[in-house]
Structure formats: C-alpha cells, structure tokens
Amino acid sequence: MTGPRTLYQKHIDAHTVCELDDQGHVLLYIDRQVANEYTSPQAFSGLREAGRQVWRPAATLCVVDHVNPTAPERDAHMPDPGGARQVSYFEENCREFGIELFGVLDKRQGIEHVVAPEQGFILPGMVVAAGDSHTTTYGALGAFGFGIGTSEIEHLLATQTLVYKRLKTLRVTVEGEPGPGLVAKDIIMELIRRIGASGATGYAIEFAGPAISALSVEGRMTLCNMAVEAGARGAFMAPDDKVFDYLKDKPRAPRGALWEQGVACWRELFSDPGAQFDREVTLQVGDLEPMVTWGTSPDQAAAIGACVPDPLAEPDLILRQDLQRALRYMGLQPGAALSGIPISHAFIGSCTNARIEDLRDAARVAKGRKVAQGVRAMIVPGSTQVRDQAEAEGLAQVFREAGFEWRQSGCSMCLAMNDDVLSPGDRCASSTNRNFEGRQGAGARTHLMSPAMVAAAAVSGHLVDVRSLQGEV
Amino acid sequence: MQPFIHVQGVAAPLLAANVDTDVIMPKQFLKGIDRAGLDRGVFFDLRFQEDGSPNPGFVLNQAPWQGAAFLVVGPNFGCGSSREHAVWGLKQLGIRALIGTSFAGIFYDNCQRNGVLTIQLKPDELKRLGERVSQPETAGIEIDLPGQRIVLGEGESIAFQIEALRKEALLSGLDAIGSTLLRSEQIRAFEARHLAGNPWLA
C-alpha cells in the first residue's frame, strides 16, 4: 500500500516500466519527444551505425528552430553552411525514420517549446523529454518535461524509454498578489535569485499557491521554463481548468468522448493531501518589484530599484572572485544604480517570453513611443503562429511604428546560434533566460527581464522600471 | 565506450562556480552533424587569445596541467544548455573524470553516457584536493574506481561514493541502448497497458 503521493511521484510511478535498483533508478517510459536540428544529428547517426529503428516515430515531433535566420522576409535558404547541413540532415532523418517535421517554411514552425503546446502535442499527465534544457516548459500543462543530451535522445528514439533516477521533490508555494506590471518572469527571477543557480539541483519542483493559480497558462510556461536556471530537472504544477481551456480544440488535442475521458483523468493529477516533499520554499510576491540581472548567472539579479552589489561584501574568496569577474565582464561598477544603465540592444524572443501574451505586454509599452536613438530593438515571435496572431491583433503594426524590427520565429538571439549575434561590448535588455558570458555573442552583455521591461528599456535607451512610464502597463 | 577502471593523470583546478556549457563549448562549435573536432572548442574563449594563440594565463595551457586527465571544478559545473558537445569536447581533450561538489543534472547524465566519471566530494574535501592539485608537484593523482578512492600519494587518498548502477556501467563500458533493448518485451507490454489506459495518447 502506498501513502499519499506527490504529483511527481504519481507521474513517475505511472511511467515506470521497471525498477532497476533500490537507489531510485527506473526504466522510464516517455510519452512524447520534441527534437531540434542541432542536438539530434549525432543521435540519428548513432541509430544508423547500430542498425536500429525508431521505436515509435509518432511520439516524436521535429522542429527547426535553433539555426534558422529570423530576417523579416523568410525563405528556405540557410546562409550558414553548418546550419544548412544540420537542417538538410534533419530533413533526411525525419524522412528516413518516418518522423513528422515542421520545416522552416511551415506555418506551424517556431521555437519547439512554443510550438508543441500550441499544437496540443503535450497533454497533462505526460512525461516528455527533449534535447533541450528548457523542456521544463511543459510543466505548465501538468506534464513533466525535462531536458536530455544527445546520447539520451538516441536511447529514447531506440527504446521510447530512459534510464532515469528519481529526483527529490521541492514544493515552491507562491503567495500574495503581484502588483500591476509584475509578471511570471519577475516571480521566477526572484525565486532563482533567492535559492541560487543550483538551488534546485537534484529536485523536481512543484509550484503551488494562489499566485500560481492566478497565472495564465502562458505565464506558467515562463515559470516552468526558467526553473531549470535554478537547476531543477523538471518543474510543474497541477493542471486546472485554465489548462483544459487552453488545450481544448488545439490541433493535436483529443476530441469528443476521448477529450472528456482525458479531462476526467487529468482532474486527478495533484499532490495528495499530506504528501511529503523533501523540501519546501515559500515565496511572497505581494511586494515584488520588476527584476533585472546585473551579472553573468541568472541568480545574479535584483529589483530594478536596486544597485549593483559590492563584491568586497562577500566573505568567501572564490565567490568574491566570481562576483568580481562577473562585474568586469558586465562593465559595471559596484554601487551603480541598475535603473539608468544604457543599452545598445533590446531583444524580445525565446521560449521563455515570446508568446502572444508577452507580445501584448510589450506592445502596450511600445504603443505611441519610439525606440531610443542608438538602440537596435528586435521582436522575434515564439512561433510563426504567434507572429500571425500578433499581426492580426495589430501588435506588429505597433512594434513597427515604434521602430522595432518585426522578425520571423526561431531561437535567434537567445543563444545566437544563427546570424542574430551581438558584438563585443554590446549591452542587451533581453526577455530570454540566460545571461552567461558570451551567450548572445562573444563579449556581449545580457540583462534578463520581462518583455514589458525590455520594451521600456528599448524606448528609454536604458534599464528602467516599466511602471515609471506614463500610460498603461 | 572506453571502460573506466584505474586512471592516472594530472588534475587541473578550475574552481569558479556555475561554469556553464556555453563557456565549456561556445556556439560556433555546435554546427556539426558529427562529434569531430570538438576538442578545439573546449573553453575556447578562455583557452585562446583573439589571434588564435593559446592564452598563457589559462590553466590548461600551463605546465603541468596542459595534458590534464581530470578537472577539479567549482559548484554547479555544467549548468545551462543541454549540449552534449561540451562532454564530447572534454573527452576528446583527454578529460576522463571531473571532481566537484555538485554538477548540473543534464551535464552529469551526459558525462555518464560518455564514460566520463563525475565524482562529488564534500566542500572541505574538494578544497583540500583543489589546493593540492594547484601545486605543480602534487597535481598528479590516480582515480581507483573499483576501490572508490582518489589516490593522492603514498598512503593518502580521498574516498568517494558512487551508485552501483553507474559504477558498473563505467567499469564495463557497456552500450546502454543495447542493455535496455534486452527488455524490449517488458517495454512493449508496458506500452500496450499504458496506451490502453490512456487512449488519448495513442
């Protein structure tokens, strides 16, 4: 007999083919996989070399997103020879192994973690793995998603399973009501700041509490997406009516009686009362302020009203050297106010923050304003479908009139694997997920923040509290 | 996969916290469809100067650490992107094991799948090891996986823990997919039950 179980335990129990030892290793069945052109090639090569087949081709969806250009006029041409080779090999692999592909000219193309939910490919109760760390995004739908490397992609393609070690569980209860202009991005950045870049390493996070219920499904995706920046190998929350409303009538979602049957089952997906978590964290967000990063790790963040910290206040020598190195890289002085730091670039994009609600937030700030002189501002919608919707809603027009570049979809300058790359010394307000050294280009400096904060920085020419701008935020 | 049993070599200290996979393997090395040539990309911005020459200030370019077989690393090593290119590159550079206090989850699994041993020590043990291998004359160590110890010198060693399943895979160098496929019947039976119980998944 089992006692009360957490949501995580329920998901893993329901997908365990067999136990492999008494240390928590199991053979885990994976319901769905999403693959991209840059982490999958060697996995397919491995299958070929060993003469193996794909176990269940329909469980995988392939999407081109990392290397394609995002220039406003789209064609199939890949200007970079390496990227071109990856895309053509990806196409060959999908053809040969019978896997569905959304190529760059497909109207359903976009960033894999934006595309899979909007297609209804991911459903509550699923366990999903993909060769990208931000696979945690799917937690917003009550699925458990996690990133894997290429060897694991090959293992998954060949067996539909992974050799998996059960994680410890961490419940993050988020209480209070964030003020106007505060969004999911601010909540997750505050959590990462508080628990650190490895604060959830070895854990699966379950988000709970009134502030989570109040978030939209897209906001929850932002939250789960960035939980990996705290080291969480997966992050999710119990699915609710908002999730079911989001999924209903999506292209791949079940219909009719099957839908009803699914929803009835998904309503049972929650942690049992009394279930024990290995760790609990409570976050009060009632007095949260808009967050920005000042360093080169996502936990090096502060409220926009704060100042750059002083490394000399850090007693530990190695940590002090890390801080000094981060400030040197970022070109910032201890004690400088974060608000007012001038930028050269503004980027709204990525699987963290480029869905339709993000673009609406940014457009409210951009409307009737102009991008500041000397700033290059780019909008890269999370998917082609998001782009089309934003055009239909008039958001694209708002951005164009304000002087933003309105581009095609892809991962783009979040990791700069395509031709959207910053130069050394450039400073970018970015709605993305990682402010690592060189992430957006060698020597380039990244400040992470919400899409509305990026728009506010773009029109101001410097980091600024979006709430200080006149008009609707 | 090359088995890992007893390995001797030099250990290089790289003790900064949160060294991410973008730093270990920058984006310009991710454009291949095979694993070739990734040794060049490892720590590229740290290892090489703008003109392409080795940066003399970086530990892996200094004697005796330039041929290191092990890295002694800071907390949360390998965080960020899932790119296995980081591990392929380290392995091609000759790195057989990483010794730290904590590793990011995906990176840790990627190491295991490539036969690169990751050892987790307590912070005080790691500090001791880090100080020791920072001195050229004591940078050489031996890792004894069957005995689960890092041999520092005559009669001096640090014991470490490793799960039996991981240890066995490293010692044997076995193909993980081949092992799992031995359970094909079990997977098929599970799958049939699972899809019947959740028909919207089929």
TrEMBL record, chain A:
Residues 12-461 form the Aconitase/3-isopropylmalate dehydratase large subunit alpha/beta/alpha domain. Its cofactor is [4Fe-4S] cluster. GO terms for molecular function: 3-isopropylmalate dehydratase activity; 4 iron, 4 sulfur cluster binding; metal ion binding. InterPro entries: 3-IsopropMal_deHydase_lsu (IPR004430), Acnase/IPM_dHydase_lsu_aba_1/3 (IPR015931), Acoase/IPM_deHydtase_lsu_aba (IPR001030), Aconitase_4Fe-4S_BS (IPR018136), Aconitase_4Fe-4S_dom (IPR036008), IPM_dehydratase_rel_enz (IPR050067), IPMI_cat (IPR033941). Keywords: 4Fe-4S, Amino-acid biosynthesis, Branched-chain amino acid biosynthesis, Iron, Iron-sulfur, Leucine biosynthesis, Lyase, Metal-binding. [4Fe-4S] cluster binds at C351, C411, C414. It catalyses: (2R,3S)-3-isopropylmalate = (2S)-2-isopropylmalate. Pathway: Amino-acid biosynthesis; L-leucine biosynthesis; L-leucine from 3-methyl-2-oxobutanoate: step 2/4. The keyword Amino-acid biosynthesis applies. Belongs to the aconitase/IPM isomerase family. LeuC type 1 subfamily. Heterodimer of LeuC and LeuD. Catalyzes the isomerization between 2-isopropylmalate and 3-isopropylmalate, via the formation of 2-isopropylmaleate. This is 3-isopropylmalate dehydratase large subunit. It comes from Pseudomonas putida. The lineage of its organism: Bacteria, Pseudomonadati, Pseudomonadota, Gammaproteobacteria, Pseudomonadales.
TrEMBL record, chain B:
HAMAP family: LeuD_type1. Heterodimer of LeuC and LeuD. It comes from Pseudomonas putida. It catalyses: (2R,3S)-3-isopropylmalate = (2S)-2-isopropylmalate. This is 3-isopropylmalate dehydratase small subunit. Pathway: Amino-acid biosynthesis; L-leucine biosynthesis; L-leucine from 3-methyl-2-oxobutanoate: step 2/4. Residues 1-122 form the Aconitase A/isopropylmalate dehydratase small subunit swivel domain. Gene3D superfamilies: Aconitase, domain 4. Coiled coil: none annotated. Keywords: Amino-acid biosynthesis, Branched-chain amino acid biosynthesis, Leucine biosynthesis, Lyase. Belongs to the LeuD family. LeuD type 1 subfamily. It comes from the Bacteria. Catalyzes the isomerization between 2-isopropylmalate and 3-isopropylmalate, via the formation of 2-isopropylmaleate. Its EC number is 4.2.1.33. The keyword Amino-acid biosynthesis applies. SUPFAM superfamilies: LeuD/IlvD-like. One of its GO terms (cellular component) is 3-isopropylmalate dehydratase complex. One of its GO terms (molecular function) is 3-isopropylmalate dehydratase activity. One of its GO terms (biological process) is L-leucine biosynthetic process. It is an enzyme of class 4 (lyase).
